[in-house]
Amino acid sequence: MRFEVSGKPLLAATMSAAVLAGCVSSAAIVPPPRQQSTTTTAPAGSATVPIAPPVRAAAPVAKGPIDPGFRRAPAGLEERLFSLWRGFPGKTGIAVQRIDGEWALAQRGDELFPQQSVSKLWVAMTALDAVDQGRVRLDQSVRIGPEDLTLFYQPLASTVRAQGSVTMTVRELIETAITRSDNTANDSLLRTVGGPEAVRRFIAKKDLGAIRFGPGERLLQSGTAGLNWQQAYSVGRAFEQARATLPDATRKAAMDAYLADPVDGASPAAIASALTRLARGNLLSPESTEYLLDVMSRTRSGPQRLKAGLPAGWKFGHKTGTGQNYKGMTAGYNDIGIATAPDGTRYAIVVMLGTTTSPIPERMALMQAVSGAVAEFHGR
Fold this sequence. Notes:
Elements: E1 2-5, E2 8-11, H1 77-86, E3 91-98, E4 104-107, E5 113-114, H2 120-132, E6 141-144, H3 156-163, E7 166-169, H4 170-179, H5 183-193, H6 196-205, H7 217-225, H8 238-244, H9 248-260, E8 265-266, H10 268-280, H11 286-296, E9 315-322, E10 325-326, E11 329-330, E12 333-340, E13 346-355, H12 360-377
Antiparallel strand pairs: 1-2, 3-4, 3-13, 5-8, 6-7, 9-12, 10-11, 12-13
Helix pairs in contact: 1-12, 2-4, 2-5, 2-6, 4-5
C-alpha cells in the first residue's frame, strides 16, 4: 500500500488505533512492523474503525514566516489515515491534498470508485464553463416535463406532476442539483449543456485525469440494476418494484459488472486534484469559481459525513454520492469536499467507499475521523 506525497511514492505506515466514543466498537490494535503492503484489500468482517476522538474545537493557528505544513504533510497524519483505511472493511479510498500547499496523501488513490452523485459536480462545472464561454446563461430558462423525470431522489417530480411542467433557470438547476442532489435537476442541466459527451469533453479539456462520466442518471441506475430503462420507472416506486422482480443472477451480474469497471468511476486522487484546481481558480472564471464554491457550502445532503468531523470554526463545501444496495452491500458511499480552517488554509478531502456492508453509522464515523484527523494535525 502506498501513499503519494507531492507525486512521489512514500512507504505507508501504521500506528496504534485510538478509540471512537459513542460511534462504533473499538479494540486495541498492535501495529505491525513498517513494511510495504502488496495487497489493497481491507480486512473483511465486522468493522472496528480505529478512530481518534473527534476534534470539536480549534483556535486559529498562528503561523510564522515559513509554514511547516506547506511543503510536507504534518507528521503523524499519514499514519493516522493509513490506520483508518486499514481498519475499515470493503474497498475504501482516501485522498487529502493541501490546496494552498505542495503535498497530497492517498490510500488506493489511483483506483476507480463509483462516484454516483459526486458526478453532479462535473455537470455543474461543465455548465459554468459554458457560461464563461458565453454559450449558456445562468438566467437561461429550461422546461422540465414528465418525460424528463428520473428516479430515486427527485423532489422536483411532485411539482412537475402537479403542474404538468416547471421552468427553471440554469442557476436554479445548479443550486438544486448540488445542494439537494436532485436527480431530475441534474439530468435537466446535463441535457441543457449538451449531454454526457459535453461533460466528458470538459473533463478532457481540463485534463482532470482518472474521472469518468456515465450516461446520465436513468441509464446508469437501470444498467446497474440489470434493467432496460422505461420512462414509467420514474413514477413512484416503479423502478424498485421492477428491480425486485428480476432474477437474483441478473441483479448480481449487473452489479458485479458495474463494480468491476464503473462507468462513472473516478479515483480519489484525481478528485482531490480537481477540487484543488477548482479552489485555486484554475478551472473556471473567478466569478464562476466563487459561485460554485458558495453553492457547495450550502449542500444539505450528508451532514453526518465529512462535515461532522470538522471542529467549530471550520467551513466545508462538498458533494455526496450514494449508490444502490444489493443484499446489504452499497455500491458507492462517498463524500468529497473542500475544508477551510479558521486561518484560511484549505484542504481537499475525499472518502469513497466502493463496496461496503458496514452499517451507515460506521461509514459516517470513518468519514468524520478522516476530516477530524485533517483538522487535528493542521498547523503541526
